[in-house]
Amino acid sequence: QVQLVESGGGLVQAGDSLRLSCAASGRAFSSWTLGWFRQAPGKEREFVSAIRSVNYITHYADFVKGRFTISRDNARNTVYLQMNSLKPEDTAVYYCAALLSSSSPQNAPDYRYWGQGTQVTVSS
After folding, report:
1. Of the ranges 13-17, 53-57, 87-91, which one carries the lowest mean pLDDT score?
2. Hey, is 101 helix, strand or coil?
3. Long-range contacts of 71-76 (CB under 8 A, 24+ apart)
4. How far is the C-alpha of 118 from the C-alpha of 30, rounded, in Å?
């Protein structure tokens, strides 16, 4: 059974940085696309970033380009999201997820496995 466990969230001030981690179980980790999504109160879950298994191709939502960086360490079965220049509007629960197909990484319903989420709160 695959499990994804996020960590690294917290309360920070605007302009600060955080690095989220997502540790996964499962021997096929290196073949998955890994994504990060977020959900703010009263809003729908939205795509943040993803990293493919092939050539580590990355994808970003426009609102995080230049501020967030996704990376993965297959030896540790872990995906990271480095978040810099955080803004109050980045406040949300952040989820990592595993995509087992070649579907678009921006489409949340296509992801097979999800973590429980980690809260990120950015104060102004």
Report:
1. 53-57
2. coil
3. 72/34, 74/29, 74/30, 76/23
4. 23
